[in-house]
Each structure stands twice: as C-alpha cells, then as structure tokens.
Write a structure and sequence with these properties.
Helices cover about 5% and strands about 50% of the residues. With about 180 residues, it is mostly beta strands. Pfam families: WG_beta_rep.
Length: about 180
C-alpha cells in the first residue's frame, strides 16, 4: 500500500531471515530482540506483539507464551543448559533493560529452560550477588541461594540478606552471618 497525505502508515512488522534469505520467523512482530546472539548456538528471541512478549527460538517455536507485563532475558548465557529469566512486572510497567536495573518493577520471577520447563519460581526478583556467581530468590517470605544453573545451594531459610560486594550477609535465627562460611 502506498501512503498519501492524510493516510496512516501501517506499522512496520519485523521477522528474521536465515542466511539464504528465507523468512524463518515471519514479519508479524512489533519488535524482536535476540537474547543470546552467540554464533554456533541456537538463537532465542524475545518478541513483542500488541503489548505482550514471548520467547521463541529460531524455528519460530514458542518457548514462553505471550503475556502482558512480562520481561525476558537470558539468565546464564555462558553455561549449558541455557536458562532464561522470566519476570512478571507491575501492571502497566514499560520497564526495559536488565532485571537488575528494573528490580523495583518486578513482582515475581521464574527461571525457565530452553524447552519452556520451569526450573525455579521466586515470589520476588531473582538478584545476582555482586562479585559472586550466586543469586538470591524468595519463596514464602524467606530467601534462598541458587547458582547460575538454577541449582539450589540453600533452600529458602534466610529472613533477609545484604550484599556488601566482597561479603554477603544473611539473617539466620535472628543473627546476621556471612554467607561464604555457610557454603563451605
């Protein structure tokens, strides 16, 4: 369609071409963002359509279904299996970027594998501990610790935590104790 003065232009839709020029992901999305742009590995994409987001693979298979107020990102780009962080945002949020930057907008979070299987659910943002390869998550009002493969290091048992960068403190039995000695 050719637009003329006074006519609305149709919104531009995006898709994905393979190296042979074939549309592997049809031009139907409002936005498309690679979550793991590494060569020689399957590609996963966050797609947006009418204020909803989903996770698809390069064969256009839906991994995480479309939902409003959903933020998606790679959880562990350098580890196999590849995991994704799915965060539910407060209603009406337009937050974008990494979950660490928008944690005040996050209501809850999940870690999902590349087949869509739920690995871990948290009732709060999942946050990386500074200078550590560990993450805090929350269930039933208590904090637990996982690694970058979503393996539980500590089941939820801590009332609160504090990350001072070089030291992480957790509250257990009413006392703040260092996390590192508990791990060893």
């Amino acid at each position: 369609m050719i637009a003329s003065a006074g006519m609305k232009k149709a919104p531009i839709k995006v898709g994905l071409l393979d190296d042979k020029g074939t549309w592997v992901v049809p031009q139907v999305y409002d936005a498309l963002q690679p979550l793991n742009p590494c060569t020689d590995k399957p590609l996963y994409l966050q797609v947006r359509l009418q204020q909803k987001t989903a996770l698809i693979n390069q064969q256009h298979k839906i991994i995480i279904p479309f939902a409003p107020n959903q933020h998606l990102e790679a959880f562990n780009s350098n580890v196999t299996p590849l995991l994704f962080l799915r965060s539910t945002l407060v209603a009406g949020s337009t937050a974008t970027g990494f979950s660490e930057d928008i944690k005040d907008e996050i209501v809850s979070a999940q870690i999902v594998d590349d087949t869509g299987k739920l690995r871990l659910a948290s009732s709060a943002p999942i946050t990386k501990l500074l200078y550590h390869q560990l993450y805090m998550y929350q269930q039933a009002g208590k904090y637990g610790v996982i690694n970058n493969q979503a393996k539980v290091i500590f089941a939820p048992q801590f009332t609160r935590y504090r990350d001072d960068g070089d030291k992480v403190w957790v509250e257990k039995n009413g006392k703040m104790v260092r996390l590192e000695p508990l791990i060893k």
